[in-house]
């Protein structure tokens, strides 16, 4: 079940919950704005859903409430930052602005970031650069997290390790955003909270059997999420997961070697300026052509035409603007409990 809410009311609630837990207002404005934009593009697991997870982090001092990142290295086109466990959405807005400015000057820029806090939905971030005419790649891992076993193994060792590419097209950006595992930790938590098994065998129990049961996360020893490709060709998801850990931790010279125990995010960000290659118009001519050919492809099921990544985000944004922002019941229950704890009133649903 879902309900729709006014975006300003949801933004205000998210911002007030974050400032109430100690985050300085300028940063809370940015985090809350990006969380609501995430809900607006239909990624309900990583929108306002994250606030009840961030609040205890802020209160415990695990998510830093004030201050800035440190620049560890700056070679103009390549950079390394330390995020000091500041809110990932804030760190990423600073990193994106820096990389877009460098890409405008040099054609491309890449940055590794160590010790940010969680950066949320990657396509909400790549979309910022794609809307401004850039190609943007973002990958993230958490060197303190162990949720996904290497293919052929049974012990969780990696994180879901999402990577995303956003790039311009005429109608709306293409937003590819996918984990190296079949699903996310947040989705597993949602299924545990609602008691609903997965429709397919997306999990691996601690004896190496594929299962629909999300609660294998809670066994001792712990089960895990299967890599993309599952039991059949999970070597592909494992390969993607290794790539993301390398880009985000080896380039950041910080990762599992240091064995951090604090929830965090290492990031790799790359921005390319099509103007420094064949030009933005020529770029869009190619992406528009391929997108149109994909959408025109004869579908297996006429009721489910081919969609290009980013199409659903665009239609969800349009529906959010006209009808309000969707919040799923599982999220609403946790956000309402968080609001009650903070002495805040929940907004009234629109429908
Ligand atoms: N910050 C973090 O640590 C972290 C970790 C894991 C995931 N996440 C976020 O969680 C979100 C969900 O990740 P996910 O891997 O479950 O994504 P997903 O499986 O829902 O989608 C993966 C990709 O497939 C596309 N897609 C989905 N259905 C499609 C269809 N029928 N046709 C064409 N394209 C389709 C989506 O647009 C997306 O590009 C992402 O936004 C990700 O950034 C964040
Ligand atoms: O929530 C996390 O701990 C990581 C990530 O956002 C996920 O959902 O997998």
TrEMBL record:
Lineage top rank: taxon: Bacteria
The record's InterPro entries line, in alphabetical order, gives:
Mal/L-sulf/L-lact_DH-like_ah, Mal/L-sulf/L-lact_DH-like_NADP, Mal/L-sulfo/L-lacto_DH-like_sf, Malate/L-lactate_DH-like
Question: What GO molecular function annotation could you give as one example from this UniProt entry?
Answer: L-malate dehydrogenase (NAD+) activity
Which SUPFAM superfamilies does the annotation name? L-sulfolactate dehydrogenase-like
The record's EC number reads 1.1.1.37
Cite the Pfam families for this sequence: Ldh_2 (PF02615)
- List UniProt keywords, sorted A-Z: Oxidoreductase
What is the name listed in the Swiss-Prot or TrEMBL entry for this protein? Malate dehydrogenase
What is the protein's species of origin? Celeribacter marinus
Lineage runs: Bacteria, Pseudomonadati, Pseudomonadota, Alphaproteobacteria, Rhodobacterales
């Amino acid at each position: 079940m879902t309900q729709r809410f006014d975006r300003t009311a949801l933004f205000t609630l998210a911002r007030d919950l974050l400032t109430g837990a100690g985050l300085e207002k300028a940063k809370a404005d940015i985090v809350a704005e990006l969380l609501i934009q995430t809900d607006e593009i239909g990624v309900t697991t990583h929108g306002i859903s994250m606030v009840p997870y961030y609040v205890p982090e802020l209160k415990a001092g695990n998510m830093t409430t004030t201050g800035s990142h440190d620049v560890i290295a700056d070679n103009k086109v390549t950079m390394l930052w330390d995020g000091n466990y500041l809110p990932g959405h804030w760190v990423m807005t600073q990193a994106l602005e820096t990389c877009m400015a460098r890409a405008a000057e040099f054609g491309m820029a890449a940055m590794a970031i160590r010790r940010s806090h969680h950066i949320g939905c990657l396509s909400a971030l790549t979309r910022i650069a794609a809307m401004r005419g850039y190609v943007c790649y973002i990958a993230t891992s958490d060197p303190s997290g162990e949720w996904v076993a290497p293919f052929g193994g049974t012990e969780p060792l990696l994180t879901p390790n999402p990577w995303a590419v956003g790039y311009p097209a005429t109608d709306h950006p293409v937003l590819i955003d996918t984990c190296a595992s079949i699903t996310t930790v947040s989705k597993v938590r949602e299924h545990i909270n609602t008691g609903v098994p997965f429709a397919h065998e997306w999990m691996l129990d601690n004896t190496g059997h594929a299962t629909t049961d999300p609660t294998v996360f809670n066994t001792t020893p712990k089960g895990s999420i299967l890599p993309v490709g599952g039991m059949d060709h999970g070597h592909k998801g494992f390969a993607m997961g290794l790539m993301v850990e390398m880009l985000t931790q080896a380039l950041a010279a910080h990762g599992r070697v240091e064995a951090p125990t604090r929830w965090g995010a290492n990031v790799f960000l790359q921005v390319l300026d099509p103007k420094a290659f064949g030009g933005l118009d020529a770029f869009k001519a190619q992406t528009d052509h391929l997108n149109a050919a994909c959408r025109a492809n004869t579908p297996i099921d006429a009721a489910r035409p081919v969609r290009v990544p980013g199409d659903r985000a665009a239609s969800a944004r349009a529906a959010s603007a006209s009808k309000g922002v969707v919040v799923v019941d599982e999220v609403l229950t946790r956000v309402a409990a968080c609001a009650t704890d903070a002495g805040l009133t929940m907004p009234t649903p629109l429908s």
